Amino acid sequence: AAAGLSYVGAYVINTYKSYDNFLQDKYALLPAVIIICVAVVMFIIGLIGCCATFRESRVGLGLFLAIILVIFIAEVSAFVLGFVYREKVKTDVQSTMRSVFEKYDGKNPESTVVDYLQEQLHCCGVKNYSDWTTTQWFNSTGNNSVPLSCCQQEAKNCTGHLDQPQEL
């Protein structure tokens, strides 16, 4: 389990590099760091449990049980806090995404990240393609279209025009 959590934490940190323009908050990597720390603690706790079982130590097994109970309480608390604050996180991420979409010009690093995000997640805009109609890029191009990264991968002749929403 500790190895699995270590992998997940490292994967999140590695993936963060692709989306760091959307997650401008300095605490965005905190969950990944916490996951890695939990993996280290789980390894140590597992070692304690194995040693206590091997030696048949009642004190060691009691300590192991107490640690497992504390971890269970922490997990339940984390679940409750995640449930309570889910709307705040959603609102914060959407507002940050909207600000990055406003900076889109097709050439700058934010534009590259937006294109990458839309291609990888098979999406267009923050909620849908109509989000592009309020951006500076949309108004400056004047061609009534969205970036080509909004096009579906199987759409061969997609131009990004809003009169063909089935291709977006």
From TrEMBL:
Main location class: membrane
Entry-linked InterPro entries? Tetraspanin/Peripherin (IPR018499), Tetraspanin_EC2_sf (IPR008952)
Q: Which GO terms describe its cellular component?
A: plasma membrane
Compartment(s): Membrane
**Its membrane topology:** Multi-pass membrane protein
List residues traversing the bilayer.
28-54, 61-85
Q: Which UniProt keywords apply?
A: Membrane, Transmembrane, Transmembrane helix
Q: Identify the domain of life.
A: Eukaryota
Name of the protein = TSN36 protein
Originating organism: Cisticola juncidis
